[in-house]
Structure formats: structure tokens, C-alpha cells
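During the second half of the funding period, the structural biology subgroup turned its attention to how the target accommodates small molecules. The most pressing case was S-adenosylmethionine, which had performed well in the primary screen but for which no bound structure existed. We therefore specified the complex as follows and requested a full 3D prediction, including the ligand pose.
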Amino acid sequence: MIELLLQQGYADDWVAEAMKKVPRELFVHPDYAKASYSDTPLPIGLGQTISAPSIVAFMSKSLDVQDGMKMLEIGSGSGYQAAILAVLAGDSGSVYTVERIPELIALAKGNVEKLGLTNIKFIEGDGTKGYPQEAPYDRIIVTAASPSIPQPLVDQLADGGKLLIPVGSRMFQDLELVVKVGKEVETSNLMPVVFVPLIGEFGYK
Ligand code: SAM
């Protein structure tokens, strides 16, 4: 599957190597184990999903992660995306991941422990407000659909930082890339996507 993601341009070599170190079957519900390597989102319980591998690869590639970066993820879900970012950032990097559903934090922590990754910190709460305690972040990734770009996330981005977020309706969104340079932000539209809603103060109510 990873070779296919490379051929199709969703992954580059660096992302593909990281994905090889994070077996998706460790993150999917046992009922769906056989579908682990299908390019489709799968249920993880509580009405939430683990995204399709092509989307995880494309978001990881578009985020342009470099060794040692400090990152913030909103929407831990199964912990799969956080684990790939943690591998990309290496031991000197860190991933803070915020999830609003406590049962999913427990699930994601258990999944990540299976891989022995120690550079991921889980935070329970409303990620639309970001996590100001550790800001600024070199990279921020939102893995749920927002009606607009939450201002706290832009505020918590470092100078030169990048933010990826699906923006649109509850049904269909565009994946937007925000680049912050000084006080300016530049936004570009990368591709149409479909995510579960981001629920919170600066997201869907
Ligand atoms: N990144 C996840 C993975 O690798 O499995 C998939 C994320 S799933 C598509 C979206 C997640 O966003 C869900 O777990 C949902 O509970 C979470 N979510 C929705 N609104 C949130 C909010 N305001 N703060 C934090 N998490 C939120």
C-alpha cells in the first residue's frame, strides 16, 4: 500500500519511511483488521474514524515536517497521525495532540505505547482553542472539519509555521494550508476532503 501511495504522489520517501514504522493495523479496531491496508477511513468507535492512508500520507507530506519540530495535532482519534508525525520529527521533536473524547485519548495512548514512542503528549480538551501552554508550534494539523480557521490556532503558530486544516461544511471541505510569515498569513487550497466535524468553541457547535 505504501508503494502505491508513493507512486500516486500522496507520500514522498520520507513520509513513506515513517509510515512503514507505524503499522496501521495497530491503530484500527480488531473488527476491521483485514481492511487495515485498504485506502479507506475506518470506524474507531464513538462515531469517529481513522482517516484513509492516502489522506494521512498527503497531510504528513504537505505539513513539511523537519527533524526536531514542535507540533500540535487537533483530533488524536486513534493516535495514528500523531505517531507518524512523531516519527518524522524524531526524538528531538515533539507532538502535542488534543482530543475532546476521553475514551479516545485512552485508546490512542494505548496504541502509541505499542510502538514505544515517547515524544507524544496527549491533552484532553477543546482543540479549537489550541494548547497555548506549549505555543508557539512549528506545525499545527487539524484532523477534523472546521467551518473556518480558528484564530487561536493561527495565534499559536510560530513565525514561518504551517497549519493544515479541513475547512468547509459538515459534509465536504477543502484542505487548507496556512503559512505564517511575521504577522501575515497566506492560505492555499490543497484538495477536497471529507472529515468528521471539529466540535468546539471555534468549530461546529
Ligand atoms: N488523527 C486521527 C487518527 O489518526 O486516528 C483521526 C481523527 S478523527 C478523523 C477526528 C477526531 O477529532 C475525533 O477523534 C474527534 O473526537 C476529534 N475532535 C473533534 N472536535 C475536537 C475538538 N474540538 N478538540 C479535539 N478533538 C476534536
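Two results from this model are relevant to the next phase. The domain at 59-193 is CATH 3.40.50.150 (Rossmann fold). Strands lie at 42-45, 48-50, 70-74, 94-99, 120-124, 137-142, 157-168, 173-181, 184-193.
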